[in-house]
Amino acid sequence: MANSFVTTLLFLSKKAIWLMVIFLGITLISFFVIHLAPGSPTDMQTSLNPLVNEAYRAKLNALYGLDKPIFIQYYEWLIRLIQFDFGNSLSGDARPVMDKILERLPLTVGLNLVSILLALLIALPIGIISAVKQGTFIDKFFTFLVFLGFAMPGFWLALLLMLYFGIEHGILPISGLTSLNFAELSLWEKCLDISSHLLLPIIVSTIGAIAGTSRFLRSSMLEVLHQDFILTARAKGLTKTTVILKHALRNALLPVITLLGLSIPGLIGGSVIIESIFALPGLGQLFYSAVIARDYPLIMGNLVFGAILTLLGNLLADFCYKLADPRIRGIK
Q1: Residue 96 — φ and ψ, nearest 5°?
Q2: Could you give the CA distance from residue 297 to residue 77 in angstroms, rounded to a whole number?
Q3: If exposure means fewest CB atoms within 10 Å of the residue's CB, which of 49, 155, 174, 202 is most exposed?
Q4: Lowest mean pLDDT among 85-99, 122-136, 252-266
Q5: What is 10-71 written as a DSSP string?
Q6: C-beta separation of 301 from 97 below 8 A
Q7: How far from 302 is each of 31, 140, 308, CA to CA, in Å?
Q8: Separation of alpha carbons 305 and 112, rounded Å
Q9: What value does the mean pLDDT take over residues 297-309?
Q10: Who has greater pLDDT, 12 or 169?
């Protein structure tokens, strides 16, 4: 028991140090890359004003600290980050970056978590059945549906759903998070109103996730089903359901765990298109507007959250590996 605790503690310590090094590398590269892009916050703010001269632009650069060398800017930003201060947005409202991110974080995280859970509930049975029924009509039918999901771009599917359910039939709203009369609704009606606005974005996000997850699981299941320990389990007289769900599925989940670990950082990046199309006030839309405005503090704030999600996804995947595969538990 003590040895297991020490091993786990050492694993967490090594992992934490390594994640900190990776995090610093991500922030360093991101900080330099966004400053290499053409244009600056002062250009975006003054380009449409013919009365602005170079002296005024120089004063703005000094106000924002953009006149300093890039290494000094990164050092000062990193010091503020250690103090959990992302700075203020360079857009018109000049609000703290943390406040702008936190008010949009619940929508993006909630939307993507629901999509991931729905995709797992649908993709796991599809992958298992396709592998067990390899070469049959059911397998070919699911393969057709999966490749159809792969072939459909998310924005194109979103536009089709908006056209059919929103414009032609008026069944579901196609933009925003709430209706105009949201404040007048009861609590139950408010929940229904928000759900109706999120239904189409969730469908679009879920369909794309189902395609990838089911294909990965099918391929992994086919490989596991032909291994020796599966033949041994069948020779012992275990039922087909026990062999598939208890022995084969547990070992076949490793590629799916990897895929889920990689999908966690996509909560921000993958939401840009969906939130922009459906006009949802989430992190994806905030990140897009920050890039257009060259709002460096807001861009870095979003990238920091993306980096944290990436590292948490990898850490979560490692723990899930240990739970799914007993062979990995002994690896230090």
Answers
A1: -60, 140
A2: 9
A3: 49
A4: 252-266
A5: HHHHHHHHHHHHHHHHHHHHHHHHHHHSS--HHHHHHTT-TT--HHHHHHHHHHHTTTS-HH
A6: yes
A7: 12, 41, 10
A8: 15
A9: 85
A10: 169
The token duo for 249 is 């599925």
DSSP assignment, residue 164? I
Torsion region of 135: left, alpha or beta (phi above 0 gives left; psi -120 to 50 gives alpha) = left
Single-letter amino acid code for the residue at 42: T
* Residue partners of 295: CB distance under 8 A and separation at least 6: 41, 89, 90, 91, 289
Angstrom distance (rounded) from CA 244 to CA 267: 32
pTM metric for this prediction: 0.77
Residue 152 DSSP class: S
pLDDT in tens, 87-113: 888 876 778 888 888 888 888 888 888
Q: What is the mean pLDDT of residues 208-218?
A: 81
**H helix intervals, the chain:** 2-36, 41-46, 54-64, 70-82, 97-132, 137-151, 154-161, 187-225, 228-235, 240-242, 249-263, 266-269, 271-277, 283-292, 296-324, 326-329
User: How far apart are the C-alpha atoms of 106 and 104, rounded to whole Å?
Assistant: 6
Beta bridge partners of 88: 96
Phi, psi torsion values for 88, nearest 5 degrees: -105, 150
Lookup: tokens for 16? 């934490």
Q: What 8-state DSSP symbol labels residue 86?
A: -
- What tokens appear for 309 in the block? 């999600």
- DSSP state for residue 124 in the 8-state scheme: H
